């Protein structure tokens, strides 16, 4: 969200007050409810204090500095002390004893090797230093306590168009409180690149972009995201392994309501972030490498869970609007086995339930007369069974009356159930802030588990009301919007843990928020059956992997439209060299023999390749979970000393040793980059040694191969 008109002026509708001088600092001892040992509390005035008269008619910001873990410093900016009634992310904290120092010139707060330092009785400035070196900071007038005056209808508000902290004035007795925002701007050192923000499908390096953290169901080719994460990783990469030239830190904005980021856009050498309300909280996380930063953020937000080994095999879906029944399902499974294609999971998409009644959690007996028997037959073939669910209940579903009668749904302010006709007629939305609604929903799913279902595809969770909405817990609906997916996936995952055991629990989720990596696996949503959408999907996945998530998947062949044989075969290679692999589509079955005979050969070869790589993949998965880093890694994360890797978004590391460059063209041509090292091609066993300058390659591959290299003797 942009508040300024150029570098110096505010837009006409905004009044921006900034802390101009910090005049007081005190150490606050922790009480039993605090998760930090001590807090440094700094008071900063919206004007410079030269005399006692400057202490009148002026606002303050209270800046609280604390540490939830070593090398992580939290900052809470507060204007008025008011509760925003937003849900709070659950953070995993450690015992930290900070070093707090106060001199005549500044106060400082140190956690591990990270220090926050604020000038006292001088032009306001907040710096963050890691190992004594400045990595970022909030410069003079960067912070903002901002009034949106455009909605004021009483009185005539007069304010100068400046950002120097002057106060708005209105005739006596006619003051109406304006909408209020809090803003921070953190500086970027020259050469710093910014990554992350969840599954963001735009340019991989986020510099120059405006990003709103709000979950939306917008596909994989727009500026909307199913998984919006208010976290970014900043990397200023050096070129020498012998010197400490790399600077890496992350910034996590601890706000569940929609938050807006301007990434080197509104102010081109800063990342600005803002949210509606009277306070704003963020954390700076420092480390010696991108992996170290991501790992610290991952642990702070709950850590990752390791999916069971069977989930890494090939998943086959009924697809969405295709016609399917028990006969169709068995025909496809038999076809895979007859063609010697390894299969791990069969997924039943939406129409396992009757149309217009989603969700009723009852099998459509016309198509599946014996679901228990069918599930047992699939188990007998060595397959696991996944079924599609969502958190919505159609008015036509028998469950609607139950949910309405027991207050299990989100309501409108007039007391009625919040409904619309999007997706299903008269859809209501389960209110997971109501513990009784959670228990009811879990009970409906338990009946399916008792039938033999092994896991659930937790679809949707993004189109959740923020306006004219009332939640059971009374929270701000804007805060519950993004947080909804956390409650939803947590309810399903915890049920699976209770019924299947912690080692066998897995969901296949589309939406996520902060901490969602605790409930794997996530897939990329509704992509197109086109090469550019394949590239979009990978960019989104690598951005999610830069945001604290460990595992990720995507619809092989694309979801929308009919896939060409070329798309199907190239996407099969990519999908079976991803952490999780699933064939799924909208209007078209995704079994290989419906494309051409070579597609069968490609699927068999790469399904068996992944099967043969499983000892490596699963060991790397364990290491990734322990370290809090992704299994599919952006190149910059594995090679932070190589500046050529900083922008690469069409190749990735699969674990620490295997490099994959998916082919995204009809011709089989591919450009990719090999960093320094000794490499062996996984498929044709040729070897190459690359020196410190790296090597760019332009090659052509048939459908039975692609660039997939393994580091040797590293």
UniProtKB/TrEMBL annotation:
Residues 628-711 form the Glycosyl hydrolase family 31 C-terminal domain. GO terms for molecular function: alpha-D-xyloside xylohydrolase; carbohydrate binding. Keywords: Glycosidase, Hydrolase. It comes from the Bacteria. Its EC number is 3.2.1.177. Residues 63-262 form the Glycoside hydrolase family 31 N-terminal domain. CDD domains: GH31_N (cd14752), GH31_xylosidase_YicI (cd06593). Residues 305-619 form the Glycoside hydrolase family 31 TIM barrel domain. The keyword Lipid metabolism does not apply. It catalyses: Hydrolysis of terminal, non-reducing alpha-D-xylose residues with release of alpha-D-xylose. Pfam families: Gal_mutarotas_2, Glyco_hydro_31_2nd, Glyco_hydro_31_3rd. GO terms for biological process: carbohydrate metabolic process. NCBIfam families: PRK10658.1 (NF007940). Belongs to the glycosyl hydrolase 31 family. PANTHER family: GLYCOSIDASE FAMILY 31, MYOGENESIS-REGULATING GLYCOSIDASE. This is alpha-D-xyloside xylohydrolase. It comes from Weissella diestrammenae.
